[in-house]
């Protein structure tokens, strides 16, 4: 037996004792807390202390009960078209806005007001930084499959549409208790609700962490980000098509304002979403959002069960006597 063996055994036992009684394990919730503090320091030069970080499993119906008053509600989108929610309390939102506009944090109390789209626009990049940093910290953690790949998608002025947006049977809610500023006088929270059934990529193996591997991984991320920016920045025209009607040319020429056209049965519940060249992208339903007409997309391009199928696009050029 080597003369250094007893010392190695003692070191292992001491390390095991520290693991049992020392720092808590880096749970996904704690890593999200680290990501928030890191993003605040690096992006805004804002000191943030994380007092608590917890993870709970809830149903979609329970999420509205967790929302603080006057909180900013940001819809986040991830792998497999999964939708989640990021909720900045009024105190957290005020801290982010103040540090960007005045360069300092005000008192512990904040003015009572409803968040605006401007608030959302000023918070979106920071939220993406938090989510991206958490994803990096979770690179070798099994939680990456449900916590990775989410980014800011849109702003909700009212929590009522949450019942339509959050359709998963269960969600994991990360709750962070935060203190802001050098004096740490202001307290706020961040809630992140993500679909419990993960659809993201599997975590990377824990091996291969040497300098060359890290350099290759960094280069791959840069290349991936550039490709994503180029592709996602390209324009795409979409059309929502309720129905297509064939009429004799004489009837088309006789059309006047107020004329009635007969549409197929059930078109409101299964319109077509088409790209350039009438290429079928998917199906949707006609509805409303904040007083405007909107199309709610359905998953996939399979024809919905209700109603007759929409006619396929006709070949270019009308038939004789028709338009």
Task: Name a few traits of the molecule.
cell projection; FliM/FliN family flagellar motor C-terminal domain-containing protein; alpha+beta; disordered N terminus; membrane; 22% strand; six-stranded antiparallel beta sheet; cilium; disordered C terminus; chemotaxis; 10 strands; Chemotaxis protein chec
What is the gist of this entry?
The protein is of the alpha+beta class.
Give a written overview of the molecule:
InterPro entries: CheC-like_sf (IPR028976), FliN-like_C (IPR001543), SpoA-like_sf (IPR036429). It is found in: Cell membrane. This is FliM/FliN family flagellar motor C-terminal domain-containing protein. There is one protein chain. The N terminus and C terminus are likely disordered. The protein folds into two domains: 178 residues, 3-Layer(aba) Sandwich (Chemotaxis protein chec); 73 residues, Surface presentation of antigens (SPOA) (Roll), CATH 2.30.330.10. The strands form two sheets. The protein has a six-stranded antiparallel beta sheet. It has a four-stranded antiparallel beta sheet with strand order 7-8-9-10, with no helix packed on it. The chain contains nine helices and ten strands. The longest helix is centred in the last third of the chain and has 22 residues. It is globular, with a radius of gyration of 26 Å. It is an alpha+beta fold and 323 residues long.
User: Secondary-structure element sequence?
Assistant: HHEHEEHHHEHEEHEHEEE
Total domain modules: 2
Rg, alpha carbons: 26 Å
- How many strands, what sense, and barrel or not for the largest sheet? 6 strands, antiparallel
CATH topology type of the largest domain: Chemotaxis protein chec
Helical fraction equals 25-40%
Number of helices: 9
Strand order of the largest sheet: 1-5-6-3-2-4
Molecular shape:
globular
**How many beta-strand elements?**
10
Proportion in β-strands: 15-25%
CATH architecture of the largest domain: 3-Layer(aba) Sandwich
Low-pLDDT residue spans = 1-22, 306-323
Give me the CATH superfamily of the largest domain: CheC-like
The computed structural class is alpha+beta
- Please state the average pLDDT score: 81
């Amino acid at each position: 037996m080597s003369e250094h063996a007893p010392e190695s055994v003692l070191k292992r036992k001491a390390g095991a004792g520290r693991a049992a009684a020392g720092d808590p394990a880096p749970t996904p919730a704690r890593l999200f807390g680290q990501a928030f503090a890191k993003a605040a320091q690096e992006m805004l030069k804002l000191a943030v202390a994380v007092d608590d970080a917890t993870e709970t499993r809830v149903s979609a119906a329970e999420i509205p009960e967790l929302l603080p008053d006057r909180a900013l509600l940001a819809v986040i989108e991830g792998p497999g078209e999964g939708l989640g929610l990021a909720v900045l309390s009024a105190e957290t939102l005020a801290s982010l806005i103040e540090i960007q506009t005045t360069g300092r944090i005000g008192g512990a109390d904040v003015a009572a007001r409803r968040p605006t789209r401007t608030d959302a626009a000023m918070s979106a990049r920071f939220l993406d930084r938090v989510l991206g940093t958490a994803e990096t910290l979770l690179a070798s953690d099994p939680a990456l499959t449900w916590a990775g790949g989410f980014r800011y998608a849109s702003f909700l002025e009212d929590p009522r549409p949450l019942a339509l947006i959050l359709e998963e049977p269960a969600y994991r809610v990360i709750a962070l208790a935060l203190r802001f500023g050098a004096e740490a006088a202001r307290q706020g929270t961040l809630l992140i609700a993500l679909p419990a059934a993960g659809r993201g990529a599997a975590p990377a193996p824990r091996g291969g962490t040497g300098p060359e591997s890290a350099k290759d991984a960094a280069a791959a991320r840069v290349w991936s980000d550039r490709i994503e920016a180029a592709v996602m920045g390209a324009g795409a025209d979409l059309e929502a098509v309720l129905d297509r009607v064939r009429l004799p040319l004489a009837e088309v020429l006789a059309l006047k304002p107020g004329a009635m056209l007969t549409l197929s049965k059930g078109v409101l519940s299964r319109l077509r979403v088409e790209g350039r060249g009438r290429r079928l992208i998917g199906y949707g339903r006609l509805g409303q959002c904040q007083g405007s007409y909107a199309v709610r997309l359905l998953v996939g391009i399979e024809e919905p069960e209700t109603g007759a199928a929409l006619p396929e696009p006709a070949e270019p050029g009308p038939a004789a006597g028709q338009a």
